[in-house]
Amino acid sequence: MPKIKTNRAAAKRFKKTASGKYSFNKSFGSHILTKKTTKRKRSFRRRQIIAKSDRREIRKLLPNG
C-alpha cells in the first residue's frame, strides 16, 4: 500500500494546534489597505480556527500533520 501524500497547498495554509484543531491566516490582508477599516485590518493579524464542520476535510489533506 503506498503512503498517503500531504496536500502541499493545504500544508502551507493550515497549522495544527496543540489541541488538535487547525488554524489559518485570513486572506485580503496584504494590500489595498487604505480603504479597509482599522478594526478589519486588526482582525487580519489574528489566526483563525477552522470550523468543526471543516475539520474532517483538512485532516484528509494533511494526514501526517
Describe the structure concisely.
The chain has 65 residues and is an alpha+beta fold.
Question: What would you note in describing this structure?
Answer:
- With 65 residues, the protein is of the alpha+beta class.
- The protein has a single domain (8-61), classed as Irregular (Factor Xa Inhibitor), CATH 4.10.410.
- The chain is built from three helices and three strands; from the N terminus they run H-E-E-H-E-H.
- It has helices at residues 8-13, 38-45, 55-61, and strands spanning 14-16, 22-25, 47-49.
- It has a three-stranded antiparallel beta sheet.
- A hairpin with a 5-residue loop joins strand 1 and strand 2 (22-25).
- The longest helix has 8 residues, at 38-45.
- The protein is elongated and about 55 Å long.
- The relative contact order is 0.27.
- The model has no long low-confidence stretch (mean pLDDT 94).
Report on the biggest sheet.
3 strands, antiparallel
Strands of the widest sheet, in order across it, are 1-2-3
- The count of helical stretches stands at 3
* Whole-number total of structural domains: 1
For the record, the CATH class is Few Secondary Structures
* Average pLDDT over all residues: 94
Report, as a whole number of angstroms, the end-to-end distance. Answer: 20 Å
Instruction: Report the radius of gyration as a whole number of Å.
Output: 15 Å
Examine the coordinates and then state which fold CATH places here, giving the name of the CATH topology.
Answer: Factor Xa Inhibitor
- Which architecture does the CATH hierarchy give at level 2? Irregular
One letter per element, helices H and strands E, the order comes to HEEHEH
Approximate strand percentage: 15-25%
Q: Which structural category do the helix and sheet elements fall into? A: alpha+beta
Shape: elongated
